[in-house]
Amino acid sequence: MSIDWITVAAQIANFLVLVWLLKRFLYRPILDGIDAREAEITERMTAATRAKDEAVAAEAAYQAKRAALASEQAQIAEAARHKAQQERDALLAEAHDRIDRERAAWQAHQDAEAQLFATKLQRAGGHALLEMTRKAVRDLAETSLEAQMAAHMGTKLAAMKDDLTHAAGEAHEAIITSHMSLPEAAQDAFRTELAQNFPQVAPRFETDLAQAPGVAVQLGGAQVVWTVDSYIEGLGAALNEHLSRSHDTRLGVA
């Protein structure tokens, strides 16, 4: 069998032309399409990755904001709770303080009322005692008592000589008044005391049933009284002063 090299060459040439045509018009568009598709896929993958990263970043930012908001809300709630607790404590403290002050004021008022009542009761008892003493002394007083009081008055005049001289002025008479008539001995003793201290003054003795037992001396503008009533009044004044001091001391008054 003989080989037709021309035909073989023609076939080879046809094959090469076919290969070139296939590559040029079939494979290249397919390859270009594949490359374009790969590029598109790569771009989409990149975009998807970028979108995923952005989504992750957005999620992280959202979670961070959410955590910050939760923390801020917790802080606000804690601050509000703490403030409410402080206000409640302040109100309770104020209420307790007000109650304590009111209780102390009420107790002080009660103590003052009790002390006042006790003082009034003591004074009433003291006054009753003084009145009973006054009545008893008036009922039991006799001439001898007034005589002794007159003798004592004579000695008191000597101690008050300077004051009586200044107050008596130019008086020349001393009026000695008693509840009952003084005995002559008592009058003589009084004259002697008066002459020693006030030689220019003459005594005049009088009686006054309205006067309490005792002696009253009127010398010009000066008057010296020593009677049962004046003694009882002095005792009452001393009793009132003692009760007042006791009352002030119990109330804490300096």
Order of helices and strands: HHHEHEEEH
Largest sheet: 4 strands, mixed
Strand order of the largest sheet: 2-1-3-4
Helical proportion, percent range: over 70%
Oligomer: single chain
Going by helix content, strand content and strand pairing, the class is alpha+beta
Number of strands: 4
Number of helices: 5
Shape: rod-shaped
* Low-confidence regions: none
Give the overall pLDDT as a whole number: 76
User: Separation of termini?
Assistant: 160 Å
Nearest-angstrom radius of gyration? 66 Å
Strand content: 5-15%
Descriptive account of the structure:
The protein is of the alpha+beta class and 254 residues long. It is built from 5 helices and 4 strands; from the N terminus they run H-H-H-E-H-E-E-E-H. The protein has a 4-stranded mixed beta sheet. Helix 1 (5-140) packs antiparallel against helix 5 and helix 2 (143-159) packs parallel to helix 4 (184-197). The longest helix has 136 residues, at 5-140. It starts with a helix and ends with a helix. The mean pLDDT is 76.
